[in-house]
TrEMBL record, chain A:
The active site is at E300. Residues 61-523 form the Aldehyde dehydrogenase domain. GO terms for cellular component: mitochondrion. It comes from the Eukaryota. This is Aldehyde dehydrogenase domain-containing protein. GO terms for molecular function: aldehyde dehydrogenase (NAD+) activity. It comes from Erythranthe guttata.
UniProtKB/TrEMBL annotation, chain B:
It comes from the Eukaryota. Keywords: NAD, Oxidoreductase. This is Aldehyde dehydrogenase domain-containing protein. GO terms for cellular component: mitochondrion. Belongs to the aldehyde dehydrogenase family. The active site is at E271. GO terms for molecular function: aldehyde dehydrogenase (NAD+) activity. It comes from Erythranthe guttata (Yellow monkey flower).
Length: 533, 504
């Protein structure tokens, strides 16, 4: 995530990498992916215990109404970490009732904004205190690097809650000039009970993007976690209650999309839905809202974000950031820079260096220090990625490196680079959501703008150039919610994030995110003898 | 002038406005054209049910043509590439032209819609012009933000036009709804495909012609007359439309959102139905409250989404209020909307007329007390007697459904907390009226009501700067005011690294 931090991590390790050269390297247990050996003979025992593995409804950890559970798996091995209650429609009903009561009768929306702020700040402090425990749980459940969790994601989680705590007492309505003798004001009110559905690729950070603004605006919440990663949300929610959050304000239901998720989206007593996930599921979410009570919907969906390297770019930096833009988080980012457009004049050099960089990528047990890549989340994603790799090969793209699973256990995939990719190949059109870089050639700026925009997605874009005119032209022309210029994946709390076109509706983070969780009420009173209008 | 108590035929000889109907074709890419199918449909005079003109009937193919034109005008055209000042000048010129043609526009609006000419001329047209002045002023005030970063990055947020906007407007305020939709879309630099209501296609075509005269480039505003299930559905489903704004019924709004979900996830703004409470507390000025409750319900033949259609009156003043409300309704002048002094014209069409009469029957059947009215008015056209029900209970259909006609339902209450609960016990949340002289009650009720607009000791104040829109199933988003611009803008974050920043 925060490119600044990641970049500095990367630059610290860069001298090591260059000294090592390209040969397989296994010192201190770091596997460059060129070793075909099993990446993981003996997975490291996670330094954490699972303490909370039930649904959280009305401040109580409870079993599912049905009594059913489902296993959550360790992506390093595919083995069961623990069994978690499987919430479905009845549990969603219970959770919505609790949230409804907590909203309609309080005390949460009836507290002062300052009191709500204090609770959010106390929560941020508690999370900070439990940084490593939370990070370890996140790594265990999602397979992402422990160093990434502990140094970037959990601190960013804390930073986001401090950011939103600061907003609580700055939700201003407006007073408005009337066309006649009327006093006009707008109130920005909490919208009510919010349904929130978060994905598995950044369970904690997505939790913060959703829960942060909803709580800052005084709402109550029913949150459905991804079935792949139910654990960290339960742990932090426990801490949020320790910080003083009243019962029923935040309810967590673990479970599956077609059951618990659909019930939440269709619920007649939910006032708002926010969803992050695939475009296909996002369409269903919006349809369920349309068919039920027209709750407003925020969607953060898929992407196929272009990363455009112009001829005047700093090639080494562009290679490093293009690598980062795609491979970060095992390629499991909605905004992954998954179409690397390189100007023909620097194409050969770029390609050679991009391949070398991918070959150097350290893949292995995410609990090991120095790792850059862990396993994919589950066998479904793992299989899907391998299918796309086959499709790339079959469609005539050049497989520069990678192309297969890594090791024999868990869901590790070799860092894979395709060159000579054409716009109409599936690997250049679909969201792969894995460590597969596709490099395309361009020679003309206007042409690459058109090609970059020729997608149903519009989430993000990277632009590498040292020329101000080129930067300005591309920035305005790209139909994408975020344009990173000479950087990528900078995710500060204040920067709004969201999609054009079928990448979503609405913006999260920043001031814009508050709109998702507020209703606007215009209040108009007649004025007698006004001193001014 | 006829008080509704006279049961004579209202329209023996309808007044024919001195007006030529010049524009009956679709406006696509700056040209008035026939529909691709060659089909037309009649638009009727609600006073008589007779044909005013035949209008080209657009359907999916015409929507495709219009969207292509709008797409080209957005992707290649001068419109989004003009300076904001140039766009603002065109909108101001248009406002001037509309002002110059106020009479013709008001006549055309009344003829096609049946609303009182005086209302169209002295209230709606000036408001229409005012709205375009308002939005012209916004064109060069669409500011993005620069944003403090957590590290050495320069962060800016651009507010960009969203692209091709599809807009579907209703028949109850054809011109004003056009202004609410077209005004912000143009101010933000978008291009438009507008579908007018099949009951009232005429003024939008006239207005579009004035826009051309004002210098709007071809293809920026395309107007397709036609039906919801054909043209409207094609627009809502279109893969090349970037935004949809719809005003109409809640049931149709649900379909519109579903079509967006199933096609390309275009963001949707909805302004839908309402069953807005009008709460008269025991300390209210009763005469003033009666007059405004009457206005809140009967204005525009009761055809307002925000009509104050549940009049809650405190028990202490209830009897006095009902007497006076009945007297006021009996005094309402109904007749040819072109006549001076007329307060109420006909309902829009046969379907609405029959629906209103059905609800009146339901009110009687469910044992509400019919204080006055209760039937059609005259023998021709779609006139309905101003109707007042008292002793209405919350669970009666007339207290739950949107009637969209001149039928006032008066309910009794005694406790403020309870009336807030009753007022909120509806799927709608569009607007509310509160009558009280007590500031604590005003504050308590205005926070407690789940409604997008609360009018205190006034009603139907529709200034350009006041946002309007619904809680719950009354809609999504806000129109008018600064809020309306959000509907027509995309937000783009632009981040670049800083070398040696002087400050962060």
């Amino acid at each position: 995530m925060a490119a600044r931090r990641i970049s500095s991590l990367l630059s610290r390790s860069a001298p090591l990498l260059s000294r090592r050269g390209k040969q397989s390297y296994t010192s201190r247990g770091i596997f460059r992916y060129t070793t075909a050996a099993a990446a993981l003979e003996e997975p490291i025992k996670p330094p954490v215990n699972v303490k909370y593995d039930k649904l959280l409804i009305n401040g109580q950890f409870v079993d599912a109404a049905s009594g059913k559970t489902f296993p959550t798996l360790d992506p390093r091995t595919g083995e069961v970490i623990t069994h978690v209650p499987e919430g479905d429609a009845e549990d969603i009903n219970r959770a919505v009732s609790a949230a409804r009561k907590a909203f309609d009768e309080g005390p949460w929306p009836k507290m002062t904004a300052y009191e709500r702020q204090r609770i959010l700040l106390r929560f941020a402090d508690l999370v900070e205190k439990h940084n490593d425990e939370i990070a370890a749980l996140e790594t265990w459940d999602s397979g992402k690097l422990f160093e990434q969790c502990a140094k970037i994601e959990v601190p960013m989680f804390v930073r986001l809650f401090r950011y939103y705590a600061g907003w609580t007492d700055k939700i201003h309505g407006m007073t408005i000039p009337g066309d006649g003798p009327h006093h006009v004001q707008t109130l920005h009110e909490p919208i009510g009970v919010c349904g929130q559905i978060i994905p598995w690729n950044f369970p904690l950070v997505m939790f913060a993007w959703k829960v942060g603004p909803a709580l800052a605006c005084g709402n109550t919440i029913v949150l459905k976690t991804a079935e792949q990663t139910p654990l960290s949300a339960l742990l932090v929610s426990k801490l949020l209650h320790e910080a003083g959050l009243p019962d029923g304000v935040l309810n967590i239901v673990s479970g599956f999309g077609p059951t618990a998720g659909a019930a939440l989206c269709s619920h007649m007593d939910v006032d708002k839905i926010a969803f992050t996930g695939s475009t296909e599921t996002g369409k269903i979410v919006l349809e369920l809202s349309a068919k039920s009570n027209l709750k407003p919907v925020t969607l953060e969906l898929g992407g196929k974000s272009p990363f455009i390297v112009c001829e005047d770019a700093d090639v080494d930096k562009a290679v490093e950031l293009a690598h980062f833009a795609l491979f970060f988080n095992q390629g499991q980012c909605c905004c992954a820079g998954s179409r690397t457009y390189v100007h023909e004049k620097v194409y050969d050099e770029f390609l050679e260096k991009a391949k070398a960089r991918a070959l150097q990528r350290a893949v292995g047990d995410p609990f090991k220090s120095g790792m850059e890549q862990g396993p994919q989340i589950d066998s479904e994603q793992f299989e899907k990625i391998l299918k796309y790799i086959r499709s790339g090969t079959e469609s005539g793209a050049t497989l520069e490196t990678g192309g297969d699973r890594l090791g024999t256990k868990g869901y590790y995939v070799q860092p894979t680079v395709f060159s000579n990719v054409k716009d109409d190949m599936l690997i250049a059109k679909d969201e792969i959501f894995g460590p597969v870089q596709t490099i395309l050639k361009f020679n003309e700026l206007n042409d690459v703008i058109k090609r970059a925009n020729n997608t149903r997605y519009g989430l993000a874009a990277g632009v590498f150039t040292s020329n101000l005119d080129t930067a300005n032209t591309l920035t305005r022309a790209l139909r994408a919610g975020t344009v990173w210029i000479n950087c990528f994946d900078t995710f500060d709390a204040t920067i709004p994030f969201g999609g054009y076109k079928m990448s979503g509706i609405g913006r999260e983070k920043g001031e814009y995110s508050l709109k998702n969780y507020l209703q606007v009420k215009a209040v108009v009173t007649a004025l007698k003898n006004p001193a001014w209008l | 002038m006829q008080r509704f108590t006279s049961s004579a035929a209202v329209i023996d000889e309808p007044i024919i406005p001195p007006l030529q109907i010049n524009y009956t074709k679709l406006l696509i890419n700056g040209q008035f054209v026939d529909s691709a199918s060659g089909k037309t449909f009649p638009t009727l005079d609600p006073r008589t049910g007779e044909v005013i003109a035949h209008v080209a009937e657009g359907d999916a193919e015409d929507i495709n043509r219009a969207v292509s034109a709008a797409r080209k005008a957005f992707d290649e055209g001068p419109w989004p590439r003009m300076t904001a000042y140039e766009r603002s000048r065109i909108m101001l010129r248009f406002a001037d032209l509309a002002e110059k043609h106020t009479q013709e526009l008001a006549q055309l609006e009344t003829w096609d819609n049946g609303k009182p000419y005086e209302q169209a001329l002295t209230a709606e047209l000036p408001l229409f012009v005012r709205l375009f002045h308002y939005y012209a002023g916004w064109a060069d005030k669409i500011h993005g933000l620069t944003v403090p970063a957590d590290g050495p990055h320069h962060v800016q947020v651009l507010h960009e036009p969203i692209g091709v906007a599809g807009q579907i407007i209703p028949w109850n305020f054809p011109l004003l709804m056009l202004a609410w939709k077209v005004g912000p879309a143009l101010a933000c630099g978008n291009t438009i495909v507008l579908k007018s209501a099949e009951q009232t296609p005429l003024t939008a075509l006239y207005v579009a012609k004035l826009f051309q005269e004002a210098g709007l480039p071809d293809g920026v505003l395309n107007v397709v007359s036609g039906y919801g299930s054909t043209a409207g559905a094609a627009l809502a489903s279109h893969m090349d439309v970037d935004k949809l704004a719809f005003t109409g019924s809640t049931n149709t709004g649900k379909v519109v959102l579903e079509l967006a979900a199933r096609s390309n996830l275009k963001p949707v703004t909805l302004e839908l139905g309402g069953k807005s409470p009008f709460i008269v507390c025991d300390d209210a000025d009763v005469d003033h409250a009666v007059e405004l409750a009457h206005f809140a319900l009967f204005f525009n033949q009761g055809q307002c989404c925000c009509a104050g259609s549940r009049t809650y009156v405190h028990e202490r003043i209830y009897d006095e209020f009902v007497d006076k409300a009945k007297a006021r309704a009996l005094g309402r002048t109904v007749g040819d909307p072109f006549k001076n002094g007329i307060e109420q014209g006909p309902q829009i069409d046969l379907k609405q007329f029959e629906k209103v009469l059905r609800y009146i029957k339901s009110g009687i059947d469910s044992d509400a007390t019919l204080e006055c009215g209760g039937d059609r008015f005259g023998s021709k056209g779609y006139f309905v007697q101003p109707t007042v029900f008292s002793n209405v209970k919350d669970d009666m259909l007339i207290a739950q459904d949107e009637i969209f006609g001149p039928v006032q339902s008066i309910l009794k209450f005694k406790d403020v907390d309870k009336v807030i609960k009753r007022a909120n016990a509806t799927r709608y949340g569009l607007a509310a009226g509160v009558f009280t002289t007590n500031i604590d009650k005003a504050n308590t009720i205005s926070r407690g009501l789940k409604a997008g607009t609360v009018w205190i000791n006034c009603y139907d104040i529709f200034d350009a700067a006041i946002p309007f829109g619904g809680y719950k199933m009354s809609g999504i988003g806000r129109e008018k005011g600064v809020y309306s611009l959000n509907n027509y803008l995309q937000v783009k974050s632009v981040i670049s690294p800083l070398k040696n920043p002087a400050w962060l």
